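forwarding from the other thread:

> can someone predict this with pyridoxal-5'-phosphate?

sure thing
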Amino acid sequence: MTKYTHPHGHVFYRKMGFARPKISHGEGIYLFDDTGKRYIDGSGGAIVVNVGHGRSRIANVIAQQTQTVAYAHPTMFTSEPAERFSEALAPIVPIPDARFFYMSSGSEVVEGAIKLARQIQMARGENGRTLTISRWRSYHGLSFGALAASGRPGFRQPYLGMIHDVPHIEPPYPYRESISGVEAANRLEQAILQYGAANISAFIAEPISGASMGAVIPPDGYWPRVRQICDQYGILLIADEVLVGMGRTGKWWGINHWDVQPDILVSSKGLAGGYWPLGAIAAKGEDVALIHDKLGDFSHGGTFSHHAVGTAVGLEVLRIIQEEKLVENAAVVGEYLGQKLHHTFSEHPHIGDIRGRGLFWGLELVQDRESKAPFHAARHLAPDIWKRAFEMGLIVYYSQGCIDGVNGDVLMLGPPLIARREDVDEMVGMLETAVNAELQI
Ligand SMILES: Cc1ncc(COP(=O)(O)O)c(C=O)c1O
């Protein structure tokens, strides 16, 4: 029998052949490994770290709350941090009289939101509504329910037959498809008519496409028309703000770039800035009341839901974002990042599209700018550029498959929201070096 010895002792990770350095500590926008090497965290890990690394005030909150009480089961107790965090979040989410349900990850809140939508429909007497429509090349997580919603063929493929088959529609993709936002949104209506409105509970989508497509901004007419369609057919709109929420795009929420309110919003990643595994589902007070009136309880939960330390951390992260005006910083420094990327890459022979908002930007790599032909997926261009940048001490995020689930390489920047212009200069300079080195330019 083969013994698995490589490369991390008794631990195994997702990418199994990659011998990763051992993390030592973090400070601001930097991470350091145990050899002393410095990395600029240009993507905040997986677009998570918004208030920077090494925040002692968050460490103090964790210590204090842990000493006071770390855990009490949510079916038996509420806690001061859970209630205070919710009170602070309510005015900033685009949901009237918002109520919050906390879990530990993006996947969990996505599944919770899908269940919540279903139960709102049941409470309305719409018992036949079980389906959730989502989009191809979306990412909503890898647990079975979230994977069913996710539109990444590569992640779904090993589990086909095990995951629930939900309808997916094509996402807007202005670089490769010049249709209006209304036309792109009308695909939702087509799917509703195809599957029957009476069978559909919700539509879930990322307001700005995140990890799979790399910061694709839909045309302006898209979200208002989606809202209209959902209202017309009695379908709940779930905004997956796990990646683009909490100030990342220069507004509190991605959906705030349009004058649209979802029925349910989910947040994670930046919600606790990487200091605690935390996710939140935000729902309308009236919908929560309806479930209570008609069904009694919300049929969902988890041992670690509404965690006292997690919600205390969330509250502290929110305070830091507000006190240091980090959403505003994301808008201003983000605009500079956009300009800098355009200045550096707009004539680059292999950068086809530069897109993003606030401090979340994507660069789509192409073989040829004229034809927009992608590199063959087997070339592993985005992962190889990622590796070069990592070796140089710059952390970026990447994806393959933004065009059709297989082809289409995209690199993403999403630094902590504390980043300054000089940090942007350094990051973009290093990224240019990594891209050109890999492409031998
Ligand atoms: C939009 C979106 N939803 C959900 C998830 C899943 O979150 P998690 O990895 O915390 O389960 C992600 C993760 O990247 C995401 O980007």
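The CA atoms of residues 132 and 236 lie 9 Å apart. thats all i got for now
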